[in-house]
Structure formats: C-alpha cells, structure tokens
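Thread: quick sanity check before group meeting

JM: Hey all, I'm pulling together slides for Thursday and realized we never actually wrote out the predicted structure for the chain we discussed last week. Dropping the sequence here so it's in one place. If anyone has concerns about the input, flag it before I start.
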Amino acid sequence: MDIIDVGCGTGNFANYFLNFEPHSLTLIDASENMLSKAKEKLQAPSSSTQLSFKQVVLPDMPYDDNSFDAAMISLVCIPCYKWYHLVSLGPYLNENPNISGFASPRTRP
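JM (edit): ok, ran it. Output follows.
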C-alpha cells in the first residue's frame, strides 16, 4: 500500500502507519520545520517501506495521478488548506482509496 500523509506535522500519525509496513509512506507539509521534526522522529521498521518527505502547499501536488492507495489528513489548519484543496487530492489516489481525516475547528477568542 502507498500512503500519503497530508499536513503530516511532526509525523505522529505516519509513525503509526509504519507498524503496517506499507510499500511507501509519503509525508507532505507546508512547513519545512514540521517536516524536519518528522524526519528526526521516523525510522522505517524495515527496509521495505520507502519514506519520502516533501514541502508542499496545496493544491500544488508534485505527484502523478493514481500514486497513492490511502490518504491521511489530520488536524490540518482549515484556513491554511481550503476544503477544495483537499478535494483536489482525488486524482492522486487510486481507485477505491481509503481516506481518513479530521480537522480541529479554528477557535475564536
């Protein structure tokens, strides 16, 4: 399985996915600082999982169509990633993809 973690932050959820030894695990985030922390945290449990990290600001996706079997979108800042940007992930996912995600509403004073 090829998984993409959109808005990966420091890699907490990606670290969990490594337990299942996917073929590849791609982490993208708009913040280079978050990606650096994720790189420090993650170690592939076996040489079979291909890890990749890329600074990406949606909707610009540097991947071919049908590149991923599953996507994780978690606690992504809604003002940073508009919902229509998340919908734009569709072409990059294989037929019948698994998409999991949730977002925290923006709090107001």
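AS: nice. The longest strand covers residues 93-102. The chain has three helices and five strands.
JM: adding both to the slides.
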